[in-house]
Specification:
Elements lengths: L5 E8 L6 H12 L5 E8 L6 H11 L3 E5 L6 H11 L4 E4 L8 H12 L4 E8 L4 H17 L8 E8 H7 L9 H8 L3 E7 L12 H14 L3 H30 L8 H34 L22 H7 L2
Parallel strand pairs: 1-2, 1-4, 2-3, 5-7
Antiparallel strand pairs: 4-6, 5-6
Helix pairs in contact: 1-4, 9-10
Bound molecules: uridine-5'-diphosphate and magnesium ion.
Uridine-5'-diphosphate binds next to strand 1 and helix 3.
Length: 329
Amino acid sequence: MTSRPLISYVLPIYREEGNIDLLHERISAAVATIDVDVELIFVNDGSPDGSLDRLIELSRRDHRVTVIDLARNFGHQVAVSAGIDHARGDAIVIMDADLQDPPEVSLELIREWQDGWDVVYAQRRTRKDGAFKRLSASAFYRVLGVMSSVDIPRNTGDFRLIDRAVADQLRRYGEHARFLRGIISEIGFKQKAVLFDRDARHSGTTGYPLRKMIKFAVDGITSFSAKPLQLISRAGLVMSFLALLGILYVMGVRIFAPERVVEGWTFIVTAVFLVGGLQLLLMGIIGTYVGRIYDEVKGRPLYGVQEVFREGEPRLGRTARGEARRRDP
Ligand code: UDP
Ligand code: MG
């Protein structure tokens, strides 16, 4: 029986037939240099090309390969979630399949994990994407940073390693509009960044056209922020204040310069100001409740436990975490 830690690679596949073999080769070569066992979990996300055939062929040649063929295209975030659900490793590496995330970098992630970090995310030092992708990504992260309630590290994708404990916690998040990097940030545990240079896509074209990118950005912002709703309340307060000033002005004119007032003007203008301010204020109140309903409906776990210290139970050695855990019954 082996006591080496098992590392699961989760690889979402959408139209990647030109990348699968090289990806498999590069991961195999990389992990051959370290002392771990691996399983490769390929999740076919309804690819219309020959990806599935490639994967099945691969699984015949290599017993470490598992192929999960989703019933249709569910999108990248769901595909990764499916892979995590099926992973059995002590740690899980999430990686794009187009070789933009260099497999060699995953070795560094594993090393940091063995040093005791629970989430090791790969942060881009440079990226080789087009100007539009770079601009839109940077704008998105800026907006997200201002809006969101959790600190989501910039310049990171989903390329990261998570410990078993983090994966178990992640599985308690049942929300459909998934923004994994946000959820993983929210989960906590000991998180660390590793810098890397992001390569260009090896073969094929992006599976994230503008339409999907916008949906992804909206998911990211709305699932971690109730700020847009709070804005209504704030606008309501400002409007109400302005309405009050407006009403005072109208009254003043009515009293001090009645000759300038058309019949009925005072009443109509006061009513317009009053109703406008009130409406926004009330919508803000409704917005607050909608925000709370949204929070409850997401059904996120209340807390996550990193470790329990109890007398008589020795802690697992951090560096030998994989080995220790696998010896558990
Ligand atoms: N992907 C997926 N389902 C999709 C779109 C993409 O599983 O609907 C996978 C794709 O195969 C790749 C990863 O998600 O492994 C990232 O996609 P891509 O490289 O196309 O996105 P980009 O790097 O251009 O943002
Ligand atoms: Mg890519």
